[in-house]
Amino acid sequence: MQGVGFRPFVYRLAVRLGLDGWVCNGPGGVLIEAQGETPALTAFVQALELEAPPLALITALESVEIPAAAGSGFSIRTSDSGAGHTPVSPDCDVCPDCLRELFTPGDRRYRYPFINCTNCGPRYSIITATPYDRPWTTMAAFPMCRECATEYHDPADRRFHAQPIACAVCGPQLRLVAADGSYLPTDPLQGAIEALRAGMIVAVKGIGGYHLAVDPFNSKAVGKLRRRKRRDEKPFALLTESLQSAAALAQISAVEERFLTGVERPILLLRKREGTMIAPEVAPANDYFGLMLPSAPLHYLLLRGNFPALVMTSANISDEPLVYRDDEALQRLSDIADLFLGHNRPIHAPCDDSVIRVFRTHPLLLRRSRGYVPRAIRIPEIGRAALGAGGELKAAICLAQGGQAVLSRHLGDLKNPATLAAYSDSITSLQTISGITPAVFAHDLHPDYHSTAIAAANQELPQVAVQHHHAHLAACMAENRLEGEVIGIIFDGAGYGADGTIWGGEFLVGGYSGYRRAAHLRQMLLPGGDAAAGEPYRMAVSVLHQLQGDKLFATPLSCLRDVTPQQQRIFLQMLAKRINSPLTSSCGRLFDAVAALLGVRNRMNYEGQAAIELEGLAERGTFGRLYPFGVSREPEALLLDWLPLISALLDDVLAGLPAADSAAAFHHSLAAAAAAVCREISRESGIRRVVLSGGVFQNRLLSEALVSLLENDGFMVFTHRLVPPNDGGLALGQAMIAGRS
Ligand code: ZN
Ligand code: ZN
Ligand code: FE
């Protein structure tokens, strides 16, 4: 396996156990030569399987004994893979050796912010062309000094062929710049630390782009950042130095520890601890903190300026792309940041922070970017190389060939012109990085997606239009390397349906070559069209209209309180005559409706906010009873009817029962309903394998409830581990379907 952080993992394990030897990529897999005492070797072999990096998949482990030789430490050997494409590695965090040197007085790289070695440091973000070699990185502008060159050419050295090798004599340097572009004469690091201490906002250049840093214990400073960034409530990520300092802020399970400390260094969503002094403005109305450990030496140096944690949020204004070039940082961030802590090592390929949660023992990726990109994903063999265009809101593209797929970084919302430009560039750059030339271009069925338009404008490649939820199904099948037919429970926000309505609560039966819509959620109207997706109270109105007709506004609910009589009339007209109110079977909108009914939220400040807060509420509740639901047969498909569920939930709300308990009951009831529909489909089709996909499965409570029910029924259940269940994973499914077509 390549590019899954396996060799650095082996290296660290061997060093920890005091073994001599080496690890390298061979033609048939990874080759390790290890030498040491028997107990250490036994522990080594055991740990290889037990502690392997999250995404590494060991299919077979064989070992033979060889005669001992003189030991000289452990090393990663550069692969002589010969012909063929050598995959580009993701960016990697600071390894324990470099971290030790960074804080060892007298070391050549003592407090040098760009320390790295063969086992760590930037990769993907600094590579300008392949093969991966110093002239083709943004380090090309820094000729090595004598000492660095010696290390670089010495096979016994930890920095043998470490392309970004540098030191204070020859390498990049920090600089501190004021918002007007003038350089400050102070020590850049010390100046930045003092500014942060004084409550200022500092733009900090990281591995994949700029962050905005602020002291999270300073309420006023965090509030200032919110106003300037025009971001009302979406939580800010926190950077903290170690597992210990993270544990002081949040509850961390043993499994979560593994992912928090992993080389990918994602933002991990962790349940807040009570009584921390973190300002409430960091993550308002949210039970979780997004925590990450340092991904760059500079982060350690900043934190050791006596900060238990720092806000580190990606540097952009609301939904614009991440800022990563120094000139654009000054241009675009001068109204937000007071100071800029930058340096002269350019970032070539920007990359957002990745965001994950842990579901059972696996990562649940919400955003797959830095640390994961451009790591290849093993998929079932496809006949022709394919390009998947992805979706619209969480755009990412995918190139697949043979048994491998490579996804681009998270690109974001294509309605933003700057994002759209980056999207077009990524099609070319991902081909260079992956070495894959597509023979077919797959895109969503939605006629208005920008990604669809770009695919349509391509004259060279044949095109395949893929239904949105079919792509979700195929993505989950592909990463689990499934063949044949499965039942796909696809609970999603919105996707263009084969019948022209908006789908999003689908039970599909099929595989890569096709699907049928076996069942779906009861449909509802979206009063106001797109506006309904951001305003959950509209969904409550829509759902209540199905229950109570024109009398709905007489219901004493907090979500209806602010609807004026005039708005009431407009709503009733819209719903009766179906004006600007498209039909949808979306599961995401059902969550919005329930969130509004339970008084969680009427309007959203960021995508998914109502559902996130509803899940948080449900986690605080006790699950007492199941609400009823209906399963009926329509001419074309089964119908999962949630109306009885909403009716019972409404009774509880009006009876004044705790909203948290109702929220919990809603999650469990929806899971029970989905499991019942699944049993029915299985009875007819004989299929026993189920895949779960779609943005709603970012919800851990629903996922847990549904997976448990299905497993108790004897189903084999497959969820996402390598790509997000949301539209960030869509391109993989598209490429898979097109590659098999
Ligand atoms: Zn290192
Ligand atoms: Zn040097
Ligand atoms: Fe989707």
Q: Which terms would index this structure?
A:
single chain, ten-stranded mixed sheet, 28 strands, Alpha-Beta Plaits, Nucleotidyltransferase, domain 5, binds zinc ion, 22 helices, alpha/beta, binds fe (iii) ion, 741 residues
Please describe the topology of this protein.
Layout: H1 6-16, E1 20-26, E2 29-35, H2 38-50, E3 74-76, H3 96-102, H4 146-153, E4 174-178, H5 188-197, E5 202-205, E6 210-214, H6 219-229, E7 237-239, H7 243-247, H8 254-260, E8 267-271, E9 288-292, H9 297-303, E10 310-314, H10 326-333, E11 339-343, E12 355-359, E13 362-367, E14 376-378, E15 386-388, E16 398-401, E17 404-407, H11 417-434, E18 440-444, H12 450-457, E19 463-466, H13 468-479, E20 486-496, E21 502-511, E22 514-521, E23 524-525, H14 531-534, H15 536-548, H16 565-577, E24 583-584, H17 587-597, H18 609-620, E25 630-633, E26 638-641, H19 643-654, H20 659-685, E27 689-693, H21 700-712, E28 716-718, H22 730-740
Parallel strand pairs: 1-3, 5-11, 7-9, 8-12, 15-18, 18-19, 20-27, 22-26, 27-28
Antiparallel strand pairs: 1-2, 4-11, 5-6, 6-10, 7-10, 8-9, 12-13, 14-17, 15-16, 16-17, 20-21, 21-22, 23-24, 25-26
The protein binds zinc ion (2 copies) and fe (iii) ion.
Shape: globular
CATH architecture of one domain: 2-Layer Sandwich
From the helix content, strand content and strand pairing, which structural class follows?
A: alpha/beta
The largest β sheet comes out as: 10 strands, mixed
Strand content: 15-25%
- Number of helical regions: 22
Cα(first) to Cα(last) distance is 27 Å
Mean pLDDT: 94
Distinct bound molecules? zinc ion, fe (iii) ion
